[in-house]
Design brief:
Elements (H helix, E strand, L loop, with lengths): L1 H51 L4 H19 L1
């Protein structure tokens, strides 16, 4: 009975490892896709605002957020 339980535990650990790998791949791919989509959206918004001569608050906030991340990464 202990042998059966050990095999089941081993099988479950293997299954968990596979699921973790799948989740990691999905996360990375989703992040890439969203990054590209937001890059396109930022470009569209920027072009539209430039065309209308409006101050681009969206772009300023984006640059500020990137700066915060850089500062945070430096602190670590």
């Amino acid at each position: 009975e202990v042998g059966v339980l050990n095999r089941e535990i081993s099988s479950l650990k293997s299954h968990i490892k596979g699921l973790q790998t799948n989740i990691r791949v999905l996360y990375i791919q989703t992040k890439k896709v969203l990054k590209e989509q937001f890059k396109v959206l930022r470009g569209i918004v920027k072009n539209e605002l430039d065309r209308k001569g409006v101050d681009n608050q969206f772009e300023r906030e984006h640059k500020r957020e990137i700066s915060r991340h850089r500062d945070f990464d430096r602190e670590r």
